[in-house]
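Summary for the steering committee. One of the milestones for this cycle was to obtain a three-dimensional model of the protein with MU-OXO-diiron bound, which we needed before selecting residues for the alanine scan. The sequence and ligand used are listed below.
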Amino acid sequence: MDCRLSIMDRVHWIGVNDRETTLFENFWPLDRGVCYNSYLIDDEKIAVIDTVKFNKTEQYLSKVKEVIGDKKVDYLIVNHMEPDHSGSMKALVAAYPDMKIVGNKKTFDFIRGFYDITENFLEVAEGDELDLGYHKLKFFLTPMIHWPETMMTYDQTEKILFSMDAFGGFGSLDGGLFDDEVNVEFYEDEIRRYYSNIVAKYSPIVQRALGRLGTLDIKVIAPTHGPIWRTSPKTIVDYYDKWSRYEAEEGVVIVYGTMYGNTAKMADYVARIISENGVKNVRVYDASKTHLSYILSDIWRFKGVILGSCAYNMNVFPAMELVLSKLEHTGLKNRYLGVFGNKSWSGGGVSAIDTFAEKVKWEKIGTSIEATYTPKDAEFEALIKLGKEMAQRVKDNPL
Ligand code: FEO
């Protein structure tokens, strides 16, 4: 028998680990794997909450069978339709053709569109309830965390919040399922990477949802990714609260795009100045080498950001263009920004970062520093000034 959500003897984890998929959404690296959590409530009426990605359907169906034997699933509750959770829906419907599919008005458009399933729908709205016998479920619509149809299911009997993507993270569940069975520090990086990569754009909506959920008595948070929070749900709520308010720690992330090393030389120089001025968390990334996923995660973590680019065909370096566009897209606020770069026969890199700075409205530290061909005394002096001021600002105002 696979591990169970054993603090409640009729609520089961029927999720799966995926260590084969290399890129989440075919873009974000999964070096530590990912899990797709699904849950089964074995009551007078049997309910499954979300399914798993299509590559794990066979394993998933056998888990359902293992828990309920020859009994039938009465309800499939669809909190979220992204295919990492709905990918086994069609197979579950085939196995249990009388099963009702529970979703909100928007859910069914996705189901018809993705899977051509058109019947056995049970529509619920905000605050509606579903009685399974002992377990009484209540539904909360939370559109845009992470898609328009997303909702959460609250088990009023056991006080479990099935929160779909919210409160989730990357990383497979390597033995431990619950927060008290794992080293939470190990998962924090993967949870923040997931937040900054996948959820971040919807931070204001996360804040509103946290306000609404604050009225519930929640003993367990059961998301669709990452550990299940049964001992300290407050820990994961605090993470999400902090990140969705754009709070940050003392530290500086320096990201640069370089072709032949001159912009990189400036990055290392300013990093040393910041370090000499007492900031221990300094991260330097070559945007061509480190995946955007990790860069975003650190920028979400630390208060200071310094962005550098060489000129590339009269524009910003392509790898930095991706960093800038994703940062602008996520809507991150409240960071200190330094700008530097290099040009030769044309400019374009620094001016593109300046344009980004105007759009995101982060607090600019000093003026932009642009070297010509190679950085010289004037640029190194300007970098000293920038490094000192940035160090002072992040130490004085980490949040
Ligand atoms: Fe885990 Fe938005 O899917």
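Key point for the committee: The first helix runs from residue 57 to 68.
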